[in-house]
Design a protein that fits this description.
heterodimer, A: 193 residues, alpha+beta, 3-stranded antiparallel β-sheet, two-stranded antiparallel ribbon, 6 helices, 26% helix, B: 911 residues, alpha/beta, 6-stranded mixed β-sheet, 18% strand, globular
Chain lengths: 193, 911
């Protein structure tokens, strides 16, 4: 036991001071996730604002944690939420149960349900962790109109499915999507990064 | 196939007579001659894919999905054959897709063809998840589609009735729906139209733009048997997917058929009802009322908490303890004749006035100090109870209230009917069955319009008629049911049924003496004096079996459980022996000895101030033979305790309202018209597990027997009917004790007919005497219901033109369990007045014009339709839904066989 043993111990401390810290400065600095991180779900819209969800409940069926509850509804000409006959009248995801596995995303036949990178899914009230349709729906982008409204992009739902991917690939729409949708946690929609 | 195939089919056991020996997929099998190959395959556990094949429908060979390879006499048939149309033969060799690549390829080809025009909308299709096309496309289709061209499209969905939606894109033209409609229901409203690629299912309306809807009481079955999602129901549309529903077996609660149903539910609410499969009862079919009327359990009017009338005269929610205490103390006081009107409700001085107005605010416990004290409580349980609940009511009346004043018949009834029930129904167990109907040589229906009043029985009668049974109807006109069961009508004037039974055509009278003949009598026989006696006499004379078919699900159970004034549980009469036996079993010293009052007499006594209290179950006032008298009775009674699922017309009169469970929230037994016990378990248990509670739609309510048991405990009496299971066990222990020789059915002119029961037939003496054809002018009986001179003048004037009324209820007429079912209501048959051409000419009525049907208490405006009625007879439905609520002909003071006035209204535009 030499007299410098104590200093040697401090050596660890001093050397660590110049290393990169492993702790996060959360929540002041938000962690940027991997691009395909399984965060909060989002119910997407067609380019005119109609909902893509048809209320088929396949996501609820696929869910291994029984976290999703869906009830379908009947579109009418007066009150239309999605192209076609059916829309999701009630859509709830219970984040107390969700395990983020993403099977629901694979099940979705219309690409309505996708996942964002938002991971801040904590609350002090259990009830608030059941996200309903209003909280899950994608924000309205410019050119979109809050449903219910008639189909703007075609005569029937076929036109939507045929033209929809095309619309989504258009550069102006893509830019808007990057601008508007908070892919990074904490980012305010529309705020330049 | 784990069994080693037997190659040596020449040897082996001898072939039974009527059977053939063939080889299917290398297995040697014996099959009865005439069996379809597809059925033999099923018995071997080989599933051949199919769409059009249905065991209860005639073979069609429409979809070609069931192709198999067949070898006869060592030579292969040149093409694969449809196994659903080909019958087995000796030494046939069948190779299904399991062993034959040819059959497998053929099936894949057919599947590809069927899918060419089938849309890819499985995610939004109601059939998705339980779809034979979906499943079999996976099992016998190609993995990838080669079809890249545009699919044929149609406008969709196309409503072919208010309840049934047609999606022609999805249809694979299997013709199950058209075959069901033609063969089983007999309603030819849906057909195959067009040819070739344009072939489609449609109705007259879809083909020509106008015409009749798909109007049928059995249309829901086509939805259930559709193997794709081409036919869907408007009420279940997009409500749920099959994989998140819980299916529970149940029993039909809307009629006395006892049909097996399957209730699919989710989050505490039933989303749909499907027909169950019970070959002995309903086969695989139910009527649309059973199928589509289930939302009443979630209706806004449901009562879920006890209500007690407070000091302010209004009903307030109360705890079970308070409500039961209050009800018990009121009932005890009423039973013992103590003054109970210490409640601060105002004494109503003007009560017996001629104009009886609805006043929901007033309390029923008003004072009658000037008369001698009222005493006793009458019980009206209603006809929708399970056996267990009816038994609890019967026991409650005898033990807790010490009376035989109990009558479950909330409809026209008579003392003669009580005799008939005692002689032919109570405690007789399983009598005539559905199978008996099918095998009968001759069936005669009396006072029973089968399609309207017992639709499942109608389906069996139609099946029987198609197989050669002669089905005769004693009635007034060739109703759809008569036409669809072979068209044998024994026409008689309304009220003339007993005479007609005494003088049946010789051929029919002779046919009824042959073994297997059946007479079906409906509850409406009580409307015609002497008809029950005539039926009983006919049965005695001819030896034909008699079955009583009431409309409501609980009537037969109520008879056997003793919820009648002259019958104790198990068919026991009210004599000393039976009472002593029952008293010892029940552990009491004695039981009330005097025969009770029937429903009309109970109401009369209450209105006249003799009875102090009423316990009312699920009774709709409008259905009672005299609604005005019933309202008067409820108003006059000091104590009214109501056990109800939902707010009803009784609620405003009630002092205490105790909520009871609808049929989906309780277990129990319905005894159907056959006498068969149809036990069912709780569908949705709101108290147990989260599944029943989520969403808050299922309220926790208790069955009648439990409520009555606890109420009786408050009255210091033990009923021991805490649960339906306990009640059923006790009733079974009691057993049946019918008198060795049942008393004869005493008609109106029988010397022994007790005076009090004689007039109990329909409503008041007033209408009863009006009903006698010639005695219009001699009506001078003092009735408890005042009919003022004007009304009487209206009845007795010559303006009625000597017309007589025939009437019965239609299946869908706005009953209290049909609330919140707009689609179902849209499929109801439109109410119409029917007269013969000659009568119409005499009265100057024209088809489709609106005519006025007038009775002593009001009138009704309905369209006229011509039919083959006897001269001077008018038919109208007994209950009509009007914008202001249901109107019954009894409420208008009209009876079957009674006089009626019909005038053409000359402004035909009012409807």
């Amino acid at each position: 036991m030499g007299m410098f043993d104590g200093l040697a111990g401090f050596g660890v401390t001093f050397s660590t001071m110049f290393r990169k810290v492993v702790t996060e400065d959360y929540p002041r600095v938000k962690k940027v996730t991997a691009p395909r991180y399984h965060g909060r779900h989002q119910l997407n819209r067609h380019p005119d604002g109609l909902e893509k969800c048809v209320g088929c409940e396949l996501c609820a069926w696929a869910c291994p944690a029984d976290a999703i509850y869906v009830e379908g509804g009947d579109n009418t000409d007066e009150e239309r939420y999605s192209p076609g006959e059916r829309y999701g009248a009630i859509y709830q995801i219970n984040y107390l149960r969700c395990i983020g596995c993403g099977l629901c995303i694979e099940a979705c036949p219309t690409r309505s349900l996708t996942m964002t990178n938002e991971y801040e899914l904590a609350d002090d009230d259990r009830q608030d962790l059941i996200y309903d349709k209003e909280r899950l729906l994608a924000p309205l982008l410019p050119g979109m109109e809050q449903p219910p409204h008639p189909m703007r992009l075609g005569e029937d739902e076929q036109d939507y499915y045929v033209q929809g991917p095309e619309m989504a690939r258009r550069p102006d729409v893509q830019d808007q999507v990057r601008e508007e949708i908070p892919m990074t946690p904490g980012a305010v929609p529309g705020e330049a990064r | 196939m784990t069994q080693a195939p037997e190659k040596t089919d020449a040897e082996g056991p001898p072939i039974r007579e009527g059977h053939v020996r063939l080889t299917i997929d290398d297995q040697v099998v014996d099959a009865p001659q005439g069996e379809l190959i597809i059925r033999t395959c099923e018995r071997l556990g080989i599933v051949v894919p199919r769409f059009c094949d249905h065991p209860l429908l005639d073979p069609a060979g429409a979809c070609r999905q069931c192709l198999v390879e067949v070898e006869m006499g060592g030579r292969k048939m040149p093409k694969p054959q449809a196994s659903c149309t080909m019958t087995v033969a000796q030494d046939m060799v069948v190779n299904t897709q399991m062993t034959s690549p040819v059959a497998d390829k053929a099936q894949q080809g057919v599947m590809e063809l069927l899918l060419i025009n089938h849309p890819l909308d499985c995610p939004i299709c109601d059939k998705g998840g339980e779809c034979p096309l979906q499943n079999q496309a996976m099992s016998s289709g190609r993995a990838e589609s080669r079809f890249v061209e545009e699919k044929r499209t149609f406008a969709k969905p196309l409503p072919i009735s208010d309840e049934v939606l047609l999606d022609r894109e999805r249809c694979v033209l299997c013709q199950r729906c058209t075959r069901f409609s033609r063969q089983i229901a007999g309603d030819q409203f849906i057909e195959l139209l067009e040819r070739g690629a344009h072939q489609q299912i449609g109705t007259e309306e879809t083909a020509f733009g106008e015409g009749e809807d798909f109007q049928s009481y059995f249309s829901g079955n086509t939805i259930q048997i559709c193997p794709v999602g081409a036919l869907t129901s408007a009420s279940y549309r997009f409500r749920s997917r099959p994989f998140d529903l819980v299916s529970t077996a149940g029993v039909a609660e809307h009629d006395s058929s006892g049909a097996a149903v399957r209730r699919d539910w989710r989050r505490g609410a039933v989303t749909r009802v499907l027909a169950g499969d019970d070959p002995e009862v309903n086969e695989e079919w139910i009527d649309d009322k059973t199928r589509f009327a289930f939302r009443y359990a979630q209706a806004a009017g449901r009562i879920t908490r006890p209500l007690v009338r407070g000091d302010d005269g209004e009903l307030h929610e109360a705890s079970w303890t308070d409500a039961l205490e209050r009800a018990a103390s009121l009932l005890v006081a009423a039973r013992d004749g103590e003054v109970v009107s210490e409640a601060p409700s105002q004494t109503l001085s003007v009560r017996n006035g001629t104009s009886i107005t609805e006043d929901s605010g007033d309390s029923a416990d008003d004072e009658e100090t000037e008369r001698e004290p009222k005493r006793g409580v009458g019980v009206l349980p209603g006809g929708r109870l399970t056996v267990e609940d009816a038994y609890a009511y019967a026991k409650f009346a005898r033990l807790a209230l010490g009376t035989n004043d109990i009558d479950a018949r909330a409809r026209a009834h008579s003392g003669e009917e009580l005799d008939f029930l005692a002689a032919h129904v109570a405690g007789t167990g399983l009598g005539v069955t559905y199978a008996d109907l099918e095998e009968a040589s001759t069936v005669l229906t009396v006072a029973l319009e089968v399609e309207e009043e017992a639709p499942v029985v109608f389906l069996r009668l139609r099946k029987a008629a198609r197989q050669g049974t002669a089905v005769h109807h004693l009635g007034q006109w060739s109703t759809p049911a008569v036409v669809k069961t072979g068209g044998h009508l024994v026409a008689c004037a309304p009220g003339g049924e007993p005479a007609a039974l005494d003088a049946l055509p010789d051929a029919l009278a002779e046919a009824l003496t042959r073994p297997g003949a059946v007479v079906l009598v409906g509850e409406r026989a009580a409307e015609v004096p002497g008809l029950y006696a005539a039926v009983s006499a006919l049965a005695g004379r001819s030896g034909a079996k008699v079955a009583w078919i009431p409309r409501r699900a609980g009537e037969r159970g109520a008879v056997d459980a003793g919820a009648l004034p002259t019958l104790l549980p198990g068919g026991r009469p009210i004599d000393d022996v039976a009472r002593a036996q029952l008293a010892s079993t029940w552990g009491v010293t004695e039981l009330p000895a005097t025969p009770g009052r029937d429903a009309a007499a109970i109401l009369r006594a209450a209105a006249a101030g003799e009875l102090a209290g009423l316990v009312v179950g699920g009774v709709e006032i409008a259905d009672l033979p005299d609604p005005v008298l019933a309202r008067e009775a409820l108003r006059a009674a000091d104590v009214v305790v109501s056990l109800e699922q939902a707010h009803s017309e009784v609620t405003p009169y009630a002092d205490v309202v105790l909520p009871v469970a609808p049929v989906v929230n309780k277990s129990g037994t319905f005894r159907n018209w056959e006498g068969r016990d149809r036990r069912f378990a709780t569908t949705i248990d709101p108290s147990g597990g989260s599944s029943g509670r989520v969403g808050g739609t299922a309220a926790i309510t208790l069955p009648d027997c439990r409520v009555l048991d606890t109420l009786a405990v408050e009255m210091d009496v033990d009923l021991f009917t805490q649960t339906p299971e306990v009640a059923a066990a006790e009733l079974e222990r009691l057993g049946v004790a019918r008198p060795a020789r049942p008393a004869p059915v005493r008609g109106p002119d029988h010397p022994d007919r007790p005076e009090g029961h004689h007039a109990a037939l329909v409503v008041t003496e007033e209408e009863y005497l009006v009903a006698t054809p010639a005695g219009l002018a001699e009506v001078d009986v003092v009735s408890v219901v005042e009919v003022d001179d004007e009304e009487r003048a209206a009845t007795t004037s010559d303006a009625d033109g000597g017309l007589r009324l025939a009437t019965w209820r239609q299946l869908l007429d706005g009953g209290s369990l049909l609330v919140d079912e707009p689609e179902l209501a849209g499929t109801a048959r439109p109410p119409k007045i029917r007269v013969s051409t000659a009568t119409a000419q005499r009265l100057d009525l024209h088809e489709d014009d609106v005519a006025t049907l007038a009775g002593p208490r009001g009138e009704l405006h309905l369209e006229v339709e011509l039919a083959d009625l006897p001269v001077d007879v008018v038919w109208a439905p007994a209950r009509v839904v009007e914008p202001g609520g249901a109107v019954t002909l009894a409420g208008l003071g009209l009876t079957h066989g009674g006089p009626v006035r019909v005038t053409g209204s000359h402004d035909g535009s009012q409807r």
